[in-house]
Amino acid sequence: MALAEAGLLSVVVPVADDTDLAGIGVFAATPDDTNAIMDDHPGGRAGIFRYQTHPVRGFPEAWLPQYVQTAQAQ
Fold it and tell me: What is the pLDDT of residue 61?
């Protein structure tokens, strides 16, 4: 997962219900930058997946457990 390794894709989760969505990704980028990333992605260029971008805000001190462990180790 090159986007995650580059620090651009923070979270990827599959959607487990019977919706038309396959998954949700949270990017560490603006909506415009995320659109550019996805437009350039091989899966997006090949029409394998569709995407929508929505700006979101996090809550102060809201971290995923792996990031908390990494931050505490530093």
Answer: 75
Question: Quick one: pLDDT at residue 65?
Answer: 63
Instruction: Count up the domains in the chain and report the number.
Output: 1
Q: Which helix (H) or strand (E) holds 32?
A: helix 31-40
> What would the pLDDT profile of 24-60 be if each residue is shown by its tens digit?
999 989 999 999 999 999 988 998 888 999 998 878 7
At 71, is the secondary structure helix, strand, or coil? helix
User: Mean pLDDT, the chain, as a whole number?
Assistant: 84
28: tokens are 């560490």
Which residues are within 8 A (CB) of 43 and not within 5 positions of it... i.e. 6 or more apart? 49
Question: What domain range includes position 44?
Answer: 2-73
